[in-house]
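Example record used in the benchmark description.
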Amino acid sequence: MKSFFQKSLLVGLALVTLSACEKDEERLVLQPEGNLALTASATTVTLTSDNAAKEAMAFSWPAASFGYPNAAVTYTVQFDKKGNDFKTPVNVSVGNALKYTPTVADLNATLIKLGLTPGTASAVDVRVKSDLATFTERPAGNPLPSVFSNVTSLTGTPYRVVLEYPSLWVPGDYQGWAPDKAPKIASVKSDGVYEGYVYFQKASPFKFTPAPNWDNDYGDAGAGKLKAKGSDLKVSETGYFLLKADLNALTWSATKTSWGVIGAATPKGWDASTPLTYDAATGTWQATLDLKADELKFRANDAWDINFGDGDTKNGKTADGTLDYGGDNLKVTTAGKYLITLDLSQAGNYTYTLKKQ
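Model output (structure tokens):
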């Protein structure tokens, strides 16, 4: 009887101890303490590729407390478009650090991932999420709540990252036959098919070279055909030409283009293009127009054969400030006077801006 009583007493003590541990765990996990106050060294940043390696700004915060000492805490800095309530944030894990100092390139990449338009100032919300690293594998039915900081707002202007593609250089009489200084056309799919836009300030012979030198070149073989070391290719008049070269089929073409905008947001609606003017100094097409809060697209030669939008929702591509052939309509959110700029000077990196005046 005495032995039974002792065993019962031990079992009871063990149950009390386990119950106390469970209550301690609930207290430690479910009752985080303190205020996780996020501070930022700047509220406005304009990023440029020239400063890509430099520090953009600094975010800092105190250590989060989960109710017991020496807790292993990890931190994640979250960025989201202002007003999106962190539904689709870009997360940057910083381990157990209490500070995040992104370089200009790092912060630019984050803003681009958010879908911000390069060259345009946009508002971003930032916060810090802290978690107990010890309990990251806690069962889904009893999840560990994260601790979040206050939200701070940042106005950021990202820059466009120019993507490099296999290229052909276009030296010619119009630019002094200098391959190392010549504009390029690009093969975006790396499939031997190249295209790009080149401004010829005069009727000019030219060639394609696969490097910025004369080691190899492609010239005319007649009837729209190319051949290595062929005769000079030619455009017969001044203008802004879409050049294409297919090194698989050994074909080429040059289509003169003039650009405009069309759509319900523009003065002529969807009936006709409103022309843009080419600015040789900047290599862009521009116009200052009164736009309605509606949609528009860019198109060449007042026709639909060559047109640009931004994004392709049918194929899962979202708008990112880079133009896509036949892409989705561009949206003007607020009516007003805008400087419209179309930049086709970087092969494969076609861009635009709508700057409210």
